[in-house]
Write a structure and sequence with these properties.
375 residues, alpha/beta, D-Maltodextrin-Binding Protein, domain 2, five-stranded mixed sheet, globular, membrane, cell inner membrane, transport
């Protein structure tokens, strides 16, 4: 992946040489930042313009309007739009996965103290004497699904026992400081910021809920792939280069420096770096891992659909496997990875989540039927 710059052949020349990429102020936008700041698209025939967005809803809306060509996006945002859950419906595409792990759940200091003293999560939340207010970042997003899954394993119903609210990631720490929240699930560096401000503490990392879970993806509308296949492939090639670069530990401080800029995260470098690098006892935030991170497995997309059905967000007898196969652009990714010399992992993998349940994508209906706590 480090061969000299050579122009693409005429048949592979990107149809759109300038690509507008959306992102939200999160540490896992690091590959986009690296790609833009280091001009990694040039060798693949594209230039990248980073477009910071205030919320995931803004990312959704600008992808749909065409103001953004593609974006760093929550895996579940793409599927929510595809399925028309809680917003406009459109045919969407997951081009690749950008990272695994790296998210967390932080609770207010009094709740975290109670749990540290031995109280169960259920009892600690009940001690408030009212429904706890817990925030996530998008109704169908990864953070909502991690929060709901974890609460259910603690005997807390995420719909009836909790007031779940949506807040943009950069607002999370402020809202916790202000007492508007009892906790939140989001990406970094906002947990590090909350702890630095004395507002709360991280009680669980999402890699403890689903080890090596998929998280952010490179997303676009499906018609973008159809109209500009060479551009889409060049974008995947570029982001593979960027993910490989960012995944090297010797580059983590360098990218933390870059992310600290006001136009990106606007957070002190040390707070970004503290969780962009290894966290003791926690599966690491990974962007590449030899390409194992980046393949857009259909089974990963299907898992999110099982959770929408579990929590009553999706009903009916749709063909969930077909939806996931259409959204996740495995053929385009495989082409780009082959050109880059990146190995393709197996389509299915076996994952054991924090409740001991195993997900491999082989029988989504049976998996869904096995949950005790549902909507």
């Amino acid at each position: 992946m480090n061969s000299p710059v050579t122009p693409p052949s005429a048949s592979l020349t990107p149809e759109r040489p300038h690509v507008r990429l959306g992102f939200v102020a999160l540490s896992d936008a690091a590959p986009l930042a690296a790609a833009a700041l280091r001009d990694m698209g040039r060798r693949h025939g594209i230039s990248i313009e980073l477009c910071r967005q205030p919320s995931w809803a803004a990312v959704r809306d600008k992808l749909l309007s065409g103001e953004l060509d593609a974006a760093h996006a929550l895996y579940g945002l793409v599927y929510g739009v595809q399925l028309g859950i809680g917003g406009p419906r459109a045919d969407m595409a997951v081009l690749m996965v950008l990272n695994r792990n790296g998210q967390a759940i932080t609770l207010s200091s009094p709740l975290a103290d109670a749990i540290e003293r031995g109280a169960s999560v259920k009892d600690a939340l009940a001690s408030l004497g009212r429904p706890p207010v817990l925030a996530q970042t998008f109704p169908t997003g990864t953070h909502a699904m991690w929060l709901y899954y974890w609460l259910a394993t603690q005997g807390v119903h995420p719909l009836s026992d909790v007031r779940s609210v949506v807040i943009p990631p950069p607002r999370m720490a402020d809202a916790l400081v202000e007492g508007a929240l009892d906790g939140f699930c989001a990406g970094e560096p906002w947990h590090a910021v909350a702890e630095a401000r004395g507002a709360g503490r991280t009680v669980v990392h999402t890699s403890e809920i689903w080890p090596d879970h998929p998280e952010k993806v490179l997303a676009c509308r499906r018609d973008f792939v159809a109209l500009y296949p060479n551009t889409a492939r060049a974008l995947v090639r570029t982001m593979l280069d960027a993910c490989e670069w960012v995944d090297a530990q010797e580059h983590r401080l360098e990218i933390a420096d870059a992310l600290a800029a006001s136009g990106l995260l606007g957070v002190p470098r040390e707070l970004i770096a503290s969780r962009l690098g290894p966290v003791e006892g926690v599966a690491p935030l990974r962007f590449f891992d030899g390409g194992a991170v980046n393949y857009p497995r259909v089974s990963d997309g299907l898992w999110f659909i099982t959770q929408y059905r579990r929590w009553g967000m999706l009903s009916g007898n749709g063909d969930d496997d077909a939806v996931a196969a259409a959204v996740n652009q495995t053929a385009l990714y495989a082409q780009a990875a082959q050109e880059a010399g990146v190995a393709l992992p197996a389509e299915r993998r076996i994952s054991t989540l924090c409740d001991g349940r195993v997900w491999d994508g082989s029988d989504a209906k049976a998996y869904l039927a096995g949950f005790d706590m549902r909507a």
